[in-house]
C-alpha cells in the first residue's frame, strides 16, 4: 500500500506538521510514513503519532506526497538518494529555506514540486505557511497539498522570490515571539508574579494581540495607540522601546535570517 504522505526526516518541523495533520484527522496515522537518521527518532515518532516509520529514506520516498524535512545542508545527499524511489506522479514538497523549485525538480528527477515555508505552531493548528508550487503542478495537485497544509493552520501563495521573506516573517518568527514573551514574563517576575503565571499572561496577551491584528482590520499602529492612554503607563513602555531601538532590531533580525537563507 502506498502511503499518502512520506516524510524524509521527522525533527522539530516534521513532527510539528505530522502532529497537526494527525490531530486534524486529514490523514490517518497509517497514511503517513516517516524516516530519520536514528532509531530513537523514528521510535519516538511511532510512539507519539502511531505513524509508520523507517530508517530507509527510499521507503518513505515511495509515497504520493513526499516531504523533505531534513536540514538544507542534507539535501545534496538525500535528494539524489531518494530520487530513484520517487513515484513518477509524486508531488515533492520541500520545507527548507534553500534549493529552488528548479533544483529540486532536476535533482529529484520529478515534475511536480511545491516549496512550503511552514512554522512550528503547525503543531497546535496555528501554522502560517508560504506555498510555492511549480508550473507542473495541476490545480488538483495544489489542492491536495493545501488540504494537508490547511489542516494545521493558515497558508497563502507567494512567488518563489519571496520565500525568504515568508521564512523570516513566519517561519522564523515564533522564535522571536518566544523571546519577547520570555522577556515580558521576566519583567512580571521582577514585580513578583509567579513565573508560570507570567508566561500564561504574556502568551495570552500575544495571542489576543495577534487576533486583534487579524480580525479588527486595523493597522497595528492604531491598535497600539488605542492601548496608550494619554499620560498613562503604556506610552512609557513605548517610549523606552523606541529609545532602545526595538523596531530597528527586529528588522535587522529578520533581515539576518534572509541573508542566511540566501547563502544556503
Ligand atoms: N524548525 C522550524 O521551526 C522550521 C524548520 N524548517 C525547515 O525544516 C527542515 C527541518 O528542520 P528541523 O525540523 O528544524 O530540523 P531537525 O534537526 O529538528 O530535524 C532534522 C531531521 O532530519 C533527520 N535526518 C538527518 N539526517 C538524515 C538523513 N540522512 N536521512 C533522513 N533523515 C535525516 C533527523 O534525524 P535524527 O533526529 O534521527 O537525527 C531529524 O529527524 C529544515 O529544512 C528547516 O529549515 C522550516 C520552517 C520552520
Ligand atoms: O532556522 C531555520 O533554518 C528554520 C527555517 C525557518 C525556521 N527555522
UniProtKB/TrEMBL annotation:
Cellular location(s): Cytoplasm
Positions contributing to NADP(+) binding: 8-13, 69-72
GO molecular function: pyrroline-5-carboxylate reductase activity
Annotated residues for binding of NADPH: 57
Record domain Pyrroline-5-carboxylate reductase dimerisation: where: 160-264
PROSITE patterns from the UniProt entry: P5CR (PS00521)
NADP keyword on record: yes
Catalysis performed (reactions): L-proline + NAD(+) = (S)-1-pyrroline-5-carboxylate + NADH + 2 H(+); L-proline + NADP(+) = (S)-1-pyrroline-5-carboxylate + NADPH + 2 H(+)
Pfam families: F420_oxidored, P5CR_dimer
Start and end residues of each Pyrroline-5-carboxylate reductase catalytic N-terminal domain: 4-96
Record EC number: 1.5.1.2
Main localization of the protein described in the UniProt heading: cytoplasm
Gene Ontology terms: biological process: L-proline biosynthetic process
InterPro entries associated with the record: 6-PGluconate_DH-like_C_sf (IPR008927), NAD(P)-bd_dom_sf (IPR036291), P5C_Rdtase_cat_N (IPR028939), P5CR-like_CS (IPR053790), P5CR_dimer (IPR029036), Pyrroline-COOH_reductase (IPR000304)
Record's keyword terms, sorted: Amino-acid biosynthesis, Cytoplasm, NADP, Oxidoreductase, Proline biosynthesis
Keyword Cell division: no
Name listed for the protein in its UniProt record: Pyrroline-5-carboxylate reductase
Annotated gene: proC
